[in-house]
């Protein structure tokens, strides 16, 4: 009797030990899973930061690698100073005006200008339905191909709805270029971009046409292959790039 009682007690003890082991393994597995999710979240956050940096690099690389037309003495022409009249027309949309600092870069046959601040003494610059005129002195880039217009997303109301831009060579006023935008430069409105590349046209009635494209993106079937980052695309074609 005593022996049987002892064995039963020992069996109970073994059962308790096994339950403790199983519980510890379960807790360890749960902690590992939580740590894995935390690591995955960190990776996604890092991925988001990297995506944004790559987006900025697209513009920086284009500025560094921009190739002017192959023509004689283009460098001499580029280093001659030129005065351009830049006219911006803000659209007639609710909240279209901006308090942010606006900048423009000119792309032409001889090269590109540095980023130019369109500074105004008027406090009403870039207001809704308003036309603002600036005269900038910079490198001679020849015939304009496109411009890059942007703002620094500062101020009480940074969002800006730009209707169009008109640029004239002050010395040769027959060289007048038109740039259609009709879009937001905003982090909150539209597609969330506040940098725009606009193609040039010398005929205001023949502005560059805008097409709609459908971009299909296929994410790989791999662990943690998805992203929470902002994703961007540039399309390059025979008539220019987006």
Give the helix/strand layout.
Blueprint: H1 2-65, H2 74-78, E1 81-90, E2 102-108, E3 111-112, E4 116-117, E5 131-139, E6 144-151, E7 160-169, E8 176-185, E9 195-199, E10 236-237, E11 240-241
Pfam families: PLAT
Organism: Goodea atripinnis
Protein name: Lipoxygenase y domain-containing protein 1
Descriptive keywords:
2 helices, PLAT/LH2_dom, five-stranded antiparallel beta sheet, 11 strands, 29% helix, disordered N terminus, alpha+beta, four-stranded antiparallel beta sheet, 242 residues
Structure commentary:
The protein is α+β, with helices and mostly antiparallel strands. The protein is 29% helix and 28% strand. It has helices at residues 2-65, 74-78; strands at residues 81-90, 102-108, 111-112, 116-117, 131-139, 144-151, 160-169, 176-185, 195-199, 236-237, 240-241. β7 and β8 form a beta hairpin. The longest helix is centred in the N-terminal third of the chain and has 64 residues, at 2-65. It starts with a helix and ends with a strand.
């Amino acid at each position: 009797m005593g022996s049987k009682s002892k064995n039963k007690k020992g069996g109970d003890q073994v059962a308790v030990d096994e339950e403790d082991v199983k519980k510890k393994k379960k807790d360890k597995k749960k902690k590992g899973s939580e740590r894995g999710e935390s690591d995955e979240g960190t990776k996604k956050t890092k991925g988001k930061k990297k995506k944004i940096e790559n987006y900025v690099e697209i513009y920086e690389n284009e500025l560094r690698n921009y190739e002017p037309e192959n023509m004689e003495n283009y460098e001499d022409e580029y280093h001659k100073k030129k005065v351009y009249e830049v006219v911006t027309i803000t659209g007639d949309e609710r909240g279209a005006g901006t308090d942010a600092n606006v900048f423009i870069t000119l792309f032409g046959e001889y090269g590109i200008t540095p980023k130019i601040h369109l500074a105004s003494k008027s406090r009403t610059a870039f207001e809704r339905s308003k036309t603002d005129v600036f005269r900038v002195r910079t490198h001679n880039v020849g015939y304009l191909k496109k411009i890059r217009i942007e703002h620094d997303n500062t101020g009480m109301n940074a969002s800006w709805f730009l209707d169009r831009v008109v640029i004239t060579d002050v010395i040769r006023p027959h060289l007048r270029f038109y740039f259609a935008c009709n879009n937001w430069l905003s982090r909150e409105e539209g597609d969330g971009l506040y940098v725009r590349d606009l193609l040039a046209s010398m005929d205001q009635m023949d502005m560059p046409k805008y097409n709609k494209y459908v971009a299909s993106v296929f994410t790989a079937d791999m662990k943690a292959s998805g992203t929470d980052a902002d994703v961007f695309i540039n399309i390059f074609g025979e008539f220019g790039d987006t």
